[in-house]
Amino acid sequence: MNNRGLAHFATGHFKECKNDYIGALEQDSTNPEYLFNLGTVLLEMREADEAHVAFDKAMELDRSSAKLWHAKGLVFERESTWSKEGMIPEKDEQAIRCFKMALDLQPDFAPSSFHLGQAFHRSHHFQAALHCFKNVLEHKQKNFEVLLARG
């Protein structure tokens, strides 16, 4: 079911994808990867409350996953940017906390550095944003150099 959900996600069939992940969780409700996948599709479907629940359950099983902290930060970030009233500073603060936690767990996790930079920029913390964006470029450079060295 999880693999079928991945295929549905890749083709943009999010409703079917969601149903597949729910089915996978019915078979194994303690699999953090299934919960992560469900949260990801819920976020794509703009079902933020349900995405929070899925990511929170996954984090109960694996609090040391930078990927899960990053995903939780994305939900807060999207809630802030989706708001009809404009940016919601409290949501950006929560996103910043999650992205920082992801980076504490995995300092070279470029997606969290990038999104942290965006959140700092939205919050008018421009020096902090610049620092984050520089980190992204440094990590991308290191990754590129590693790939070159590996041939």
Q: What's the overall average pLDDT, rounded?
A: 90
The total domain count is 2
Task: Give the N-terminus to C-terminus distance in angstroms.
Answer: 36 Å
What's the CATH class of the largest domain, please? Mainly Alpha
CATH topology of the largest domain: Serine Threonine Protein Phosphatase 5, Tetratricopeptide repeat
Count of DSSP-assigned helices = 8
Q: What is the approximate shape?
A: globular
The largest pleated sheet is described as: none
| Class by SSE composition | mainly alpha
Keywords:
151 residues; mainly alpha; Serine Threonine Protein Phosphatase 5, Tetratricopeptide repeat; 2 domains
Write a brief structural summary.
The protein is an all-alpha fold and 151 residues long. Helices cover 81% and strands 0% of the residues. The chain has 2 domains: 1-62, Alpha Horseshoe (Serine Threonine Protein Phosphatase 5, Tetratricopeptide repeat), CATH 1.25.40; 65-151, Alpha Horseshoe (Serine Threonine Protein Phosphatase 5, Tetratricopeptide repeat).
Describe this protein's structure.
The model has no long low-confidence stretch (mean pLDDT 90). This protein folds into two domains: 1-62, Tetratricopeptide repeat domain (Serine Threonine Protein Phosphatase 5, Tetratricopeptide repeat, Alpha Horseshoe); 65-151, Alpha Horseshoe (Serine Threonine Protein Phosphatase 5, Tetratricopeptide repeat). The chain has 151 residues and is mostly helical. It has helices at residues 2-10, 14-27, 32-44, 48-61, 66-82, 89-105, 110-122, 126-150. The longest helix has 25 residues, at 126-150. Helices cover 81% and strands 0% of the residues. The chain has eight helices and no strands. The relative contact order is 0.08.
